[in-house]
UniProtKB/TrEMBL annotation:
Organism: Alosa alosa
Keywords per UniProt: Disulfide bond, EGF-like domain, Signal
Protein's recorded name: EGF-like domain-containing protein
The EMI domain, residue ranges: 29-110
Disulfide bridge partners, by residue number: C134-C143
Amino acid sequence: MTLGFLIWSLIVSLGTTDTETSVDLQPDMPNVCVDRELSMLGLRQPCVQAFTRMVRVWKQGCSGKSWCAGYERRTGYYTAYRQVYSMDLHSVYRCCPGWMRRGQEKGCPHRVCLPDTCFNGGRCAESGDQVCQCSEGFQGSRCQYVAVVALFEFVC
């Protein structure tokens, strides 16, 4: 193996990241959101151009001579290229905010919970649908709401 091939192999292996696996995400997978992304696409567009020129030609049988020179119009063609830009709006599938994936997992099953994710003394939940485990008196996915407790007394 040559040194160039080894360097190329290293670049290819380092070039594969988790962002490339986001192509595999689909909208029917858990915790996958759809974003619309606008990108500019530049293409070379061919443009065929025609030109004419006069070409000196030799003709046979001109006014008693066996050969004589004359001129004829000839058309030539060439292809020129111009840069054309267009805007492309397409769907991109990413993990919804607060969720992530590891490796080649289906969807985004892991919650992202950092120390500043939960409010009002809440802690990151280990399981369940909630991101945060709220302290008493608070509720919401990030413990952002004050829990309303209603007290009823029934007198018979």
